[in-house]
Design brief:
By secondary structure, the protein is mainly beta. It has 5 helices and 37 strands.
């Protein structure tokens, strides 16, 4: 399979930028497995696809069938169960949803969809409320500093989403209705096979939602239309081409924030605020393999975004930006059997990226010019396998930035398999570049940018032990992690700057799964101690998080499936502006209560082509806040039907 499955993804600086499209298309060739099986082929954290047990970094894999069994609307709800990952949603469906890894900021996480970085260039932070949990083949969550391979924004980790494609001919469709007058529909079609194919999918979700303001009563709705297209073809014995395209059109009602100094100061309040976003991303990759174990990938990628919105009913902001990436990487592999059964893979890569951005509203002479910046990234990765059970990896990368300081980053990782026991460890450095908002501001005098900012930098390591028991039916992994962040970019309203000093994050991740065939049980626990530069806890980082899930099948020929999950988020702090005007214009930190969420879902195939399904969200009807003064959904019920024509 190593000769057929192509390399991973890449980001702003990733060596293998377009190759993940091909990897995603051919990954179904791997043996079906539970998410953490050792022989699962993974493509994140390395330039060549390898078995999961050969990855020294901490990596969680979520297979597409696991996502489908939850029948959930948004991928963010699945990510809540991943160790080391914290999710916070600021209001109703479609409101800004941030995902943090190991206590870092949301823009320290690189998000890839089919090999393309999808965070808006203005903020550098991906909003997970735009990502519906449909048409996804798998998700790989890589934790720890990864800039040595992926460059900027992979300071804390990488979330790699691979969409469905190939394995046709096939057609499927689904429809769902539920609480909050929520309507969902999708349809997907694939023509061809796993080698030469065209796949297309359309997904639509509309909901009246609930009030984004915890004290509000007016519902805030959301509408999301997402279109996917993927294709691939073998051009010759030594060449193939792959391409992808994703379009998102999203309109969301939101609520405002009272900053008047009155009785509701510092609280979210009902009003007619709104946010409309449109995103497009796509690319093409040409893979050449002139001889066995020598592979070269040439790729081009584009992502663009446009956003408009208002605070209240008044148009208040608008911006647009895009990113163009050209990349090349070449990998050669060879063996030296006389020396420890060694297997070598050497990869070199080169990437050029150009980003453009401008504020489109309010109209101001200072905002008319489109800001531009570019970088040239290059580096290498070396993989060494010894004795067929020791897997080592090293990568180094240099980014030449034209708008701020250059950066050199690196990463080291090792995995040592001793029968049913595996030791894994990694060390790396990471950077996150200043965003366009941070560099150039938003209408000077309102928010002043700082052209002298330098990239944020981090260094960190993790050590882990994985143990398999009972013929691999039971697996447990315990990992300790530690990282520090310096040059943190912080608001100094009305300007912004790099902070002096270091903030620290350390903790423990524990995950376990017990597979009994027709049913599997799993759970995770994360302890996190994330401190700001002044020694106080970072906001929206729970010190304790846990999850438990059960998944299984029932009925004749396993026609039925069910899943249930419990998610616990411990007490955490959030910024509180209620006393802002009376305490020297400083935000205080207020504790948010711990909460527990329970989700239940089930489906049953009434025929070979029709499945009925349903789910119960927030089954305990918990009353909680993820972000201070912003509302959350109560108990909700959804039901639908799925049609599959193989």
């Amino acid at each position: 399979m190593g000769a057929v499955i192509r390399s991973s993804n890449s980001r702003k600086r990733a060596a293998h930028h377009g190759a993940i499209w091909l990897a995603g298309a051919l990954l179904p060739l791997a043996t079906p497995a539970m998410a953490q099986e050792a022989n699962t082929i993974v493509v994140t954290g390395t330039t060549i696809p390898v078995e999961r047990e050969q990855i020294g970094n901490t990596l969680t894999v979520i297979e597409g069938d696991e996502i489908e069994s939850r029948h959930t609307a948004y991928l963010q709800d699945i990510l809540r169960e991943v160790p080391g990952v914290a999710v916070s949603q600021g209001g109703s469906f479609g409101s800004l949803t941030q995902v943090r890894i190991r206590g870092a900021e949301a823009n320290h996480v690189l998000v890839l969809i089919d090999g393309i970085e999808v965070a808006p260039v203005g903020s550098g932070e991906f909003d997970f409320s735009t990502l519906l949990a449909d048409n996804i083949d798998r998700v790989e969550v890589l934790r720890g500093p990864q800039s040595g391979l992926y460059g900027s924004n992979a300071l804390a980790g990488v979330i790699n989403v691979i969409t469905k494609g190939g394995d046709g001919p096939a057609f499927d469709a689904a429809a769902e209705y539920g609480t909050y007058d929520s309507l969902f529909g999708r349809a997907g079609l694939t023509v061809g096979d796993r080698e030469t194919f065209v796949s297309a999918s359309a997904i639509y979700r509309r909901t009246d939602g609930f009030s984004s303001a915890a004290i509000g009563t007016e519902p805030d709705g959301d509408r999301n239309l997402t279109l996917y297209w993927r294709g691939g073809a073998k051009l010759a014995e030594i060449a193939r081409v792959d391409a992808s395209l994703r379009l998102v059109d999203k309109a969301t009602d939101t609520d405002g924030f009272d900053f008047s100094g009155g009785p509701l100061q510092g609280l979210a309040i009902d009003d007619d605020s709104y946010s409309d976003t449109r995103n497009v991303s796509g690319g093409v990759a040409l893979t050449l393999e002139p001889v066995d174990r020598w592979e070269t990938v040439l790729s081009a990628a584009y992502s663009g975004d446009e956003s408009t919105g208002g605070f209240g009913s008044i148009d208040s902001f608008g911006n647009e930006g895009d990113r163009v990436t050209l990349a090349a990487r070449s990998t050669i592999g060879f063996d030296t059997p006389a020396f420890a059964d060694a297997v070598h893979n050497v990869t070199v890569f080169l990437e050029h990226e150009e980003e453009r951005f401008r504020n489109t509203f309010p109209t101001d002479p200072s905002q008319l010019a489109r800001q531009k910046r570019s970088l040239l990234g290059f580096g290498a990765e070396y993989r060494l396998d010894l004795f067929k059970n020791l897997f080592l990896r090293a990568a180094v990368r240099h980014d030449d930035n034209d708008a701020f300081g250059d950066a050199t980053t690196y990463s080291l990782a090792g995995s040592w398999v001793l029968g049913s026991t595996r030791l894994h460890a990694s060390y790396g450095t990471g950077v996150t570049n200043p965003t366009f908002f941070e560099q150039f501001g938003f209408v000077p005098g309102t928010f002043v940018g700082n052209p002298d900012l330098v990239p944020e930098r981090a260094k960190g390591f993790d050590l882990g032990l994985e143990q398999r028991l009972l013929d691999d039916r039971f697996q447990i992994d315990l990992t300790y992690f530690n990282s520090t962040l310096e040059n943190e970019i912080v608001d100094q309203f009305p300007s912004i700057g790099n902070d002096i000093g270091e903030s620290t994050r350390e903790g423990v991740e524990l995950s376990a799964r017990f597979n009994l065939g027709w049913i599997s049980l799993g759970g995770s626990y994360t302890y996190l101690d994330a401190k700001d530069i002044d020694g106080t806890p970072e906001v929206l980082r729970p010190k304790n998080q846990a999850s438990f899930d059960v998944n299984g099948t029932f009925g004749p020929s396993a026609r039925g499936n069910f899943s249930a999950s419990l998610i616990y988020n411990g007490e955490r702090l959030d910024n509180d502006f209620r006393n802002y005007f009376s305490n020297g214009f400083m935000a205080e930190k207020t504790a948010l209560r711990a909460y527990t969420l329970v989700r239940i879902a089930a489906g049953y195939r009434v025929s070979d082509t029709i499945e009925l399904f349903g789910r119960l969200e927030n089954a305990l009807d918990s009353d909680y806040e993820e972000v201070l003064s912003y509302g959350t959904a109560g108990r909700a019920v959804y039901a639908g039907v799925k049609f599959v024509l193989p």
